[in-house]
Design a protein that fits this description.
It is a multi-pass membrane protein. It is found in: Cell membrane; Membrane. Belongs to the SURF1 family. Keywords: Cell membrane, Membrane, Transmembrane, Transmembrane helix. This is SURF1-like protein. The chain is α+β, with helices and mostly antiparallel strands. The protein folds into 2 domains: 37 residues; 143 residues, no CATH class. Helix content is 38%, strand content 21%. The chain is built from 4 helices and 7 strands. The chain has a 5-stranded mixed β-barrel. Helix 1 runs antiparallel to helix 4. About 3% of the residues have low confidence.
């Protein structure tokens, strides 16, 4: 075997390594750039939601028209008038400010006979049953202002427990089952919810204004991580090549 045969593998190895380094560098930079794009998208979304919450409420009909046209109704401020059907309220298991209890979803019967499910707010665990908060069971005509919330297409995750309809305990907001479980026809139910605002209720219960907008925005941190790894890769490769070059004359 000649010296040329020995040298050939040594020449090919740096080229192969360089290709791998370039591929890894491209992937890391792409991931960092993708996170920057996600950051801009998330900041825009947060600003949009804040603007919707700060806007003046619009009639329910406007939100219905938007929903029917496929528009995004989430967190848009709306107002509706009707009478609560208190004996058909549904209970959604929830935690509010560190306290365990339920959100009370009560059907609001509109003037045309249709039904809008309203999340009237939070009650502590011991106040689940209406008998424990009778002063809050409003019977005359009410005008509610709150935020429109879209109907969930299905169970959010396999880790979420199944709804216990028999005990009137819901772990995810299944509008169709909520309506069906109290004998309401699906056709008569408006296909979204409304979260009532923080207007005080008699005797303090339910506590309104419980809508939680939790949109984690860690994309800048992730972008720095990916770009940082790319920079580290470049430094490590540069040091490796420098050391290899320094040793070459002694060989």
């Amino acid at each position: 075997m000649t010296d040329i045969d020995h040298a050939a593998p040594r020449r090919r190895l740096p080229v192969f390594t360089g290709i791998l380094v370039l591929i890894a560098l491209a992937i890391l930079i792409s991931l960092g750039t993708w996170q920057v794009e996600r950051l801009h998208w998330k900041e825009g979304l947060i600003a949009d939601i804040a603007a919707r919450q700060a806007a003046s409420p619009v009639p329910l009909a406007d939100i219905e028209a938007m929903a029917a046209a496929g528009g995004d109704i989430e967190y848009r401020k709306v107002t509706a008038t009707g009478r609560y059907i208190n004996n058909k309220e549904r209970h959604f298991f929830a935690t509010w400010r560190g306290q365990t209890g339920y959100y009370i979803y009560t059907p609001l019967e509109l003037a045309d006979g249709r039904i809008l499910f309203v999340n009237r707010g939070f009650v502590p665990y011991d106040n689940k049953e209406p008998e424990m908060r009778m002063q809050g069971q409003l019977t005359d005509q009410q005008t509610v202002t709150g935020l429109a919330r879209e109907k969930l297409p299905g169970k959010p995750s396999w880790v979420v427990p199944d709804n216990d309809v028999a005990k009137n305990i819901f772990y995810w907001k299944d509008l169709d089952v909520m309506a069906e479980s109290v004998g309401l026809e699906k056709a008569s139910v408006i296909p979204f919810f409304v979260d009532a605002d923080s207007t005080p209720n008699p005797a303090g219960l339910p506590i309104g204004g419980v809508t939680q907008v939790d949109l984690p925005n860690d994309h800048l941190q992730y972008a720095f991580t990916w770009y940082g790894l790319a920079a580290v890769l470049v430094v490590v490769v540069a040091i490796s090549w420098f050391r290899k070059g320094a040793k070459t004359p002694q060989q």
